[in-house]
């Protein structure tokens, strides 16, 4: 212990005597460790952290994800998992579970007004859940009470539970909220409790629920759009809590057999689809997987990006460690005479190595502490960048205890790794040679490890620069592609759907008045309404062509469906290529018409003249429902990376008198719009108050969720790609700077060691240019070797991130050339200063040094 105290005291004294070295090493480590810790904080929260519930290890996902469980809607159904009738049957067929809860797969936006106030309704994100939802997770309420089975009955009084965050931020932690009446979608609900702090629901998503409603209240809220009793409508996900000690090994096979039998006899599929259903049965699996970390919506969305960032950070950390190792090697060489004296006086090599390791570990720990401070700020910046379009994010912008432990362990590990080699090399000094002076030597073997580290830094830097260049170039291609619609002077309005209690004539009147009000606002050129606007939502249905029989249940038979008002396509700047657009003449008494896009014509009509052709949705009996009257230019509404999907635009004022009750419900639901677009004559400045006033005058229950420019709406679709490109670019620049510092240190050290040699050369007639060329040749030799190693690695890494790139090849000559030039410029700047210093050496003074 006494020896350890002596080593620490000596290390602190040496660090105090060399403040520039200490600060440089600490800052280098702080940036490397801080960046890595910040990214690991996100990975821990998004990918690894368990739900804040009781005993999460006993929670199991009934159907791990959409690709593993194709219970409804055919393969790769990405809307929901099971219907409510199927959930009830599953709950009774799995005795291994003590509880099984169902919840809405996609949360809804509710218009909520506190009953006793006259304030404007607030949009709250909500979720329908079963009465045992909170008890399945082993949770009670923070205040009031949670749901019970009695609350989830058709005859029960409507009740709701607020999230802790909504209670705090929207209602100021007012205790009188509990027991008060809230008007949700026009219906009174009593708030019975506040969910525990930190509980964001069962799904880690960028916008977690703010209010929970019992599943049995869904028909009252959604009216004719209710899904509760529809056997064929898969819209619920299921999590079960296993009984203590239950054997789960055979549950998946048992429930899979049950589901296959249910699909054939009780699912409610139309008879014409049953042969396809029977054919698809071998592909249907109900997998039971651990659900302690909840439903992985955010893990699936951000997993690849986080893996890229953690790889980038790891490379930066390696470069930082190599840089500090270079600094320690240089300092160890500078101390060689001191070390030789200590060896000559009897100090053991073991003691010298331990002393050197103690100093390097202490330095790394101090750098790690500084890195934790960097990580705190870094997490906040990354969360703000990655989720800038989100209303609320269930991610704590501070490193947790496991993350802090990770940072501390990383500090110790790096200290040992980059301290071992310098410690060993320093202890290998020959006392006689060091005391005699080594500056006569033209070869300095002790600088070889430093040069190797510079080569490694150069190689890793080119990998990071090339990766950042590819991602930045891909982002530019995404942002500047032709989406098929105009964004200039377009304003997008995201709204809550009208109340489900509206009748069809009331909806028609509401939409006419709303569009008229918006069209006549000052500064508005035109206005259009739609079921959804680009990159907000998507409705897909099977297309049935007249005379072609029942469609196959696959993606190629599917098309996106959007209902729009007259003038919407013109407002969006989507030109009609053939026929006409949706117009005022397309009323509920006129024949049902549709406008399709170019992809629809190519896919379903094989480029035949589409005007006058008929088609329908889902069932063969509907094949003459719509007549095509126009073709609009392709536009991307759902996925900016893929070619435009097949799209059908239907008049907002028209309805189809389907015979099938489920189709009638579908048709009714498509008339509850969520978006509007304005084409402005000039700036959008001052438009928001006018828009909100127009909405409130038409219907106070029409809640506006967001008003933004169409360009902002498009850019929000690239938030994830933007943060990855920005962070990778930032780390690439950091790596470049660190590599330049490392090259500068080695070159300056080499010049110092070769002072005598340079003096002799100049005394024999070498001029300044010859000396500068000599130094630069030595410096750039390391860079060239680094490039020779790094460029093939960059090409290989480009292939690994190819899935993240858009219209950019994994091997891009422009990106590689730019990266090489950037590294070359930094290398020139880093080596020219020592070269100039070498060229300024006075030969007489250099020779006198010996």
Overview of this protein structure:
This protein folds into 4 domains: 1-49 and 301-437, no CATH class; 56-292, no CATH class; 448-481 and 719-850, no CATH class; 497-702, no CATH class. It has 850 residues and is α+β, with helices and mostly antiparallel strands. The longest helix has 38 residues, at 297-334. The chain contains 25 helices and 22 strands. A 6-stranded mixed beta barrel has the order 3-4-9-6-8-7. Helix 9 packs parallel to helix 21. The relative contact order is 0.11. It is found in: Cell membrane. It is a multi-pass membrane protein. InterPro entries: ABC3_permease_C (IPR003838), ADOP (IPR017800), MacB_PCD (IPR025857), Macrolide_Exporter_MacB (IPR050250).
Features:
850 residues; alpha+beta; 6-stranded mixed barrel
Quick one: overall form? Answer: elongated
Strand order in the largest sheet:
3-4-9-6-8-7
Helix content: 40-55%
Please tell me the overall pLDDT. 84
Question: What's the short version?
Answer:
Helix content is about 50%, strand content about 15%.
SSE inventory with pairings:
Elements: H1 2-17, H2 19-48, E1 59-62, H3 84-91, E2 97-104, E3 108-114, E4 122-129, H4 133-136, E5 143-144, E6 159-162, H5 164-171, E7 181-184, E8 187-194, E9 211-214, H6 218-222, E10 236-242, H7 251-265, H8 274-280, E11 288-290, H9 297-334, H10 336-344, H11 349-386, H12 401-427, H13 431-436, H14 448-479, E12 490-495, H15 504-519, E13 524-530, E14 540-545, E15 558-564, H16 568-572, E16 576-579, E17 593-597, H17 598-604, E18 614-617, E19 626-632, E20 647-651, H18 661-669, E21 675-680, H19 687-698, E22 704-709, H20 710-716, H21 719-753, H22 755-763, H23 768-800, H24 813-839, H25 843-848
């Amino acid at each position: 212990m006494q020896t350890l105290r002596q080593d620490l005291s000596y290390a602190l004294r040496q660090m105090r005597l060399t403040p520039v070295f200490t600060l440089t090493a600490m800052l280098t480590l702080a940036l490397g460790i801080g960046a890595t810790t910040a990214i690991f904080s996100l990975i821990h929260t998004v990918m690894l952290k368990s739900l804040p519930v009781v005993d999460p290890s006993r929670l199991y996902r009934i159907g791990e994800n959409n690709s593993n469980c194709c219970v409804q809607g055919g393969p790769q159904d990405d809307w929901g998992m099971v219907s409510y009738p199927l959930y009830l049957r599953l709950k009774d067929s799995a005795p291994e579970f003590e509880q099984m809860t169902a919840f809405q797969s996609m949360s809804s936006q509710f218009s909520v007004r506190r009953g006793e106030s006259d304030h404007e309704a607030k949009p709250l994100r909500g979720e329908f859940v079963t009465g045992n939802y909170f008890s399945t997770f082993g949770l009670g309420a923070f205040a009031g009470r949670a749901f019970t089975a009695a609350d989830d009955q058709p005859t029960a009084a409507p009740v709701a539970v607020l999230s802790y965050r909504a209670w705090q931020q929207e209602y100021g932690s007012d205790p009188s909220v509990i027991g008060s009446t809230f008007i949700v979608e026009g219906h009174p609900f009593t708030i019975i409790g506040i969910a525990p702090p930190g509980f964001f629901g069962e799904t880690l998503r960028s916008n977690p629920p703010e209010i929970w409603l019992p599943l049995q209240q869904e028909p009252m809220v959604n009216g004719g759009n209710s899904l509760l009793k529809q056997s064929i409508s898969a819209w619920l996900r299921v999590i079960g809590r296993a009984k203590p000690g239950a054997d789960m090994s055979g549950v998946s096979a048992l429930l899979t057999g049950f589901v296959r039998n249910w699909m054939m006899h009780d699912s409610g599929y139309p008879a014409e689809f049953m042969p396809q259903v029977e054919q698809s049965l071998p592909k249907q699996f109900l997998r039971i997987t651990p659900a302690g970390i909840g439903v992985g919506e955010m893990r699936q969305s951000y997993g690849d990006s986080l893996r890229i960032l953690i790889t980038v950070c790891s490379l930066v950390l390696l470069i930082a460690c190599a840089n500090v190792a270079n600094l320690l090697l240089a300092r160890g060489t500078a101390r060689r005479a001191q070390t030789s004296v200590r060896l000559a006086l009897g100090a053991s090599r073991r003691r010298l190595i331990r002393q050197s390791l103690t100093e390097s570990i202490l330095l790394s720990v101090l750098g790690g502490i500084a890195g934790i401070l960097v990580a705190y700020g870094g997490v906040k910046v990354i969360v703000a960048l990655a989720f800038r379009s989100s209303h609320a994010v269930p991610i704590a912008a501070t490193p947790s205890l496991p993350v802090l432990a990770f940072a501390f362990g990383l500090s110790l590990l790096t200290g040992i790794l980059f301290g071992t080699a310098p410690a060993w090399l320093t202890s290998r000094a020959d006392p006689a040679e060091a005391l005699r002076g080594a500056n006569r030597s033209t070869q300095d073997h002790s600088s070889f490890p430093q040069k190797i580290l510079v080569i490694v830094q150069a190689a890793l830097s080119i990998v990071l620069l090339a990766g950042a260049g590819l991602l930045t170039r891909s982002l530019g291609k995404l942002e500047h592609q032709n989406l098929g619609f105009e964004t200039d002077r377009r304003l997008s309005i995201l709204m809550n759907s009208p109340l489900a209690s509206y009748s069809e004539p009331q909806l028609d009147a509401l939409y006419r008045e709303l569009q008229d009000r918006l069209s006549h606002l000052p500064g508005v050129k035109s206005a259009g309404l739609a079921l959804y606007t680009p990159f907000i939502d998507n409705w897909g249905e099977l297309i049935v062509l007249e005379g072609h029989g029942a469609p196959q249940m696959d993606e190629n038979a599917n098309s996106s469906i959007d209902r729009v008002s007259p003038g919407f396509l013109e407002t969006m700047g989507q030109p009609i290529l053939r026929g006409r657009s949706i117009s005022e003449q397309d009323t509920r008494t006129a024949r049902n018409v549709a406008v399709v896009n170019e992809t629809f014509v190519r896919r379903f009509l094989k480029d035949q003249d589409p005007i006058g052709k008929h088609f329908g949705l889902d069932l063969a009996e509907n094949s003459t429902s719509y007549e095509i009257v126009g073709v609009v230019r392709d536009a991307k509404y759902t996925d900016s990376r893929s070619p435009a999907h097949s799209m059908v635009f239907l008049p907002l004022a028209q309805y189809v008198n389907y015979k099938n009750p489920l189709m009638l419900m579908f048709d009714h639901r498509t008339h509850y719009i969520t978006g509007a677009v304005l084409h402005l004559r000039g700036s959008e400045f001052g438009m928001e108050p006018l828009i909100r006033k127009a909405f409130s005058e038409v219907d106070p229950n029409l809640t506006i969720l967001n008003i933004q420019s169409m360009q902002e709406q498009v850019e929000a679709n690239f938030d994830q790609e933007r943060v990855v490109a920005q962070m990778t670019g930032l780390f690439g620049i950091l790596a470049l700077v660190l590599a330049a510092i490392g090259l500068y240190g080695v070159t300056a050290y080499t010049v110092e060691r070769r002072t005598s040699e340079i003096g002799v050369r100049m005394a024999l007639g070498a001029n300044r240019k010859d000396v500068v060329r000599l130094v630069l040749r030595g410096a750039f030799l390391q860079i060239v070797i680094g490039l020779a190693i790094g460029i093939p690695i960059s090409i290989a890494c480009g292939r690994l991130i190819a899935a993240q790139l858009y219209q950019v090849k994994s091997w891009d000559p422009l990106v590689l050339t730019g990266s090489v030039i950037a590294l070359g410029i930094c290398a020139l700047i880093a080596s020219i200063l020592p070269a100039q210093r070498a060229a300024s050496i006075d030969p007489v003074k250099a020779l006198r040094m010996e």
